[in-house]
Amino acid sequence: MTGAGNLLVIFGPTASGKSALAMEVARQSGAEILSADSMQVYRHMDIGTAKPTAAERAEVLHHGVDVVEPVEEFTVAKFVTLADATIAQATESGRPLIITGGTPLYFKSLFDGIFEGPGADAALREELRTLPNAVLHAQLSHVDPTAAARIHENDTKRLIRAIEVFKLTGKPITSWQTEWAAGGSRHQATFIGLQWERDALNRRINARAKLMIEAGWLEETRALYDRFGNLSLTSGEATGYRHLHAHLGGLMTLDDAVEQIKISTRQLARRQMKWFRRFPETTWLNGERPTIDLCADVMARWRGSPTGAQPG
What b/e readout covers 234-269, taking b as 16+ CB neighbours within 10 angstroms? Predict the structure, then answer.
């Protein structure tokens, strides 16, 4: 097990206020921040990924932001490598580090290790891509109902991978992941989760989508596609950009695009919470509380943790 007790994890669904809380704790503790967000790694995708502002990054050192171009692939393995190096550096310097973001698989892989599974089978994947998502989901439901219950029918990439693992090994991906989860943690940390009543979070998500459009998200999307043409498979999964691109291509109105963004984001938030609920030893706090109050609570818990740092 690596990583001393200078690590604090703050996670929660999108729009839950975790970034604002992490910033406030960092200000009071002198900590640096490591982003565990699979889309904030991409340059030029700022508004739509709710990336920390230039002023925030000047005030607090952020790692894991603006790492690669949007046409590049960024894998979980690359994140773990980056995160391990950041944690080692923070441990050596004695500087506290806050890990925050909304990508559950990043946290899972960082603390429990990467689930390797069998290698990709290009021919099999090509065959599966010809099938409608409803058929893929039905196939997965038959061989691995647990995985089918947590993978949305629209999530083509994960549906194909789950079916691929079963076809190549004869064993459901859920079984592999259960064995993977049985190992010990790779790093020690204090885990804080932010939870919201669903309707309140949905209202917050809807309001944030409107604010992002007002902040120039449509113009950011136009510039992104004008410059790069297409996004990579991983950056292309970022919520909202494909809807806005469809609008720019005349395939839907802006109002329809924004409505689809709201729906997709609410669905994302529900999937995130299902994942985050599986993390043991997490203290869940009410995200609707004022940030300054949450900060005081988090600081006390971080200091009071038997493995915690003594920031501030």
Answer: bbeebbbbbbbbebbeeebeeeebbebbbebbbebb
pLDDT in tens, 251-261: 999 999 999 99
Instruction: Output the pLDDT for position 267.
Output: 94
3-state secondary structure 99-120: EEECCHHHHHHHHHCCCCCCCC
Q: CA–CA separation, 25 vs 23, rounded Å? A: 6
User: Which tokens hold the place of 7?
Assistant: 């690590």
CATH of region 126-181: 1.10.20.140
CA distances from 2 to 29, 110, 122, 274, 278 (A): 22, 11, 36, 27, 22
Give the pLDDT band (50/70/90) at residue 234: confident
**Within the chain, which residue ranges are assigned CATH 3.40.50.300?**
7-113+186-304
- For the domain made up of 7-113+186-304, give the CATH fold: Rossmann fold (3.40.50)
pLDDT digits (tens, 9 = 90+) for 4-37: 358 999 999 999 999 999 999 999 999 999 999 9
Residue 80, classified by CB atoms within 10 Å of its CB into exposed (0-12), middle (13-18) or buried (19+), is middle
What's the whole-model pTM score?
0.79
